[in-house]
Amino acid sequence: MTLVSEAERPVRRAPGGKGQRRVTDHGAWFLVLPALIPILILSVGPLLYGILLAFTDAQSGRTQPTQWIGALNFRDLLQDTLFWESFRIGLVWAVGVTVPQFLLALGLALLLNQDLRLRWLARALAIVPWAMPEVVVGIMWRLVYNPDAGILNETLRDLGLGDGRDWLSGIGTALPAVIVVGVWAGMPQTTVALLAGLQNTPRELHEAAAIDGAGAWRRFRTVTWPALRPVALAITALNFIWNFNAFALVYVLTSGGPGGRTRLPMLFAYEEAFRYGQFGYAAAMGCVMVAVISILLAVFLVGRLKGGDDA
Amino acid sequence: MRTSPGARVGQYVALLAYLLFLAFPFLWLISTAFKPPQELGNLHPTWIPQDPTLANFRQAFDEQPLLRAALNSLLAATGAAVIAVLIATPMAYVMARHRTRLARAATGWVVVSQAFPFVLVIIPLFLVLKNLRLINSVPGLVMVYVVWALPFALWMLVGYVRAVPAELEEAAAVDGAGRLRTLVSVTAPLLAPGIVATALFAFITAWNEFFFALVLLKTPEKQTLPVILTHFIGAEGVADLGPLAAAAFLATLPSLIVFAVIQRRITGGMLAGAVKS
Fold first, then answer.
1. Which of A46, A83, B37, B151 is deepest in the core (most CB within 10 A)?
2. What angle do CA A47, A52, A55 make, to 5 degrees?
3. Among residues 142-181 of chain A, which lie with CB inside 8 Å of chain B?
4. Where does the record place the ABC transmembrane type-1 domain (chain B) (predicted)?
5. Tell me: the pLDDT tens digits for B70-106?
6. All domains of chain B in start order, with CATH
7. What is the CATH number of domain A72-310?
């Protein structure tokens, strides 16, 4: 952190140096406060408030005062098979989206890092899903999956692969169908992050390895991957969190149907809070989601970081 | 490095496959938006509309208050972007230049805030905003968007601040410029492109946002575009495809245009933030 000492030097050298240090600290507070106050009131505060709510019987539109009920919400949650089913679906969704997202984005990033023609077009297109409102992404894929007017079934019919089906309302196809959309929608960020990581890998090392006769796969494993690993781990962890907390895409595509087959935990908690007004119970769900995800991520990151060179 | 011709062909095939996968849903959306109803009822839809029409766009505006929704979206997104950048820039400066406990706590918050499930935050926010009578109001939504856009704005801005050499500020101080003067006349102009990129990015995130808008805005005349778009889909999941596609296409254009403008800076900003921290 050389920047720090450099930033402080002018203060000491400035004319009339007495008391400058304190002025700097006051100045820093002055600069930070406009952002700090909203963060405390609208982010940190609500978060703590939300955790407290999980231990109450808060409901919307109730006239009686809200009461502390200890861990009752959590005890109820343990028995709530619907919630755990939703949680399981959430995990299947999060893993099912995050893993292909990473592999596809890695492939695309490696291609974009090559000297290919049309690379500008690919770079521009790869970003498009990122710029779109999630609601529009959902609507777009509804049009693709539409049983009659959709392009997917039409293509299948053209290829002689049967009549197609109603993808989003089929019990067996709904979850895979929304997972494909999740992968599509999340690829850009992952690709951009990995591409940034790739551009930091030492080119000379690559060339040296090539001269030594290392094949493409060896070069990837011994040169590219070690340099890319920190970025890959960070973006995968973030993707997993984002995907587990996903809402808009699936809300538009299936609203959790058919028969709850795509009801992600966020949709479940949303319905509990804003359809049935069970604020306390929904807050407890939120707490469980944070806790489980934190544990899973900690295990994943510790495992990966310890995983050494083979990972 | 040389790549064998075979491998090159493979690379182009793979790239083409990616392009198709990424582009086809959007092309299909555009195609659907310009098709007349009888063509949409056709069991064998085609890529190119046989009888292209603007009727869907007219019908979309008749069915839902799209203009009002676009205005609400514009207000919410602009307000959020401007305020977020105004308050994030000074804080990012401190985070980049000082290693105080406060700066470290702020960095911690930026990271941790990515992990909140929104449902844990939205219930208390809903209750607080309700008490302030800011439910179902665009200013209330702006407040939420500002805080929600802050983590990424801070992340980007910290990268941009670090890219401004501290020596320049030093030189200004030696020349006798005060601290504020240095910030305003030396640092700010150099930061300006980064600030604009961050603001535009915040604009897009707010323009596209759905969950908070769905919870906080109750009546159609207050709702933003993404919420209004979902009204095209009926309770049974049945939708009038043409107007739905037309409205969705229009709602995407602003974010696509803004994104095209800042694409390079976004990737650059992410890179800067990632490398230096």
1. A46
2. 140
3. 142-144, 146, 148-151, 154, 157, 168-169
4. 70-262
5. 999 999 999 999 999 999 998 898 888 887 777 788 8
6. 5-53 (no CATH), 57-276 (1.10.3720.10)
7. 1.10.3720.10
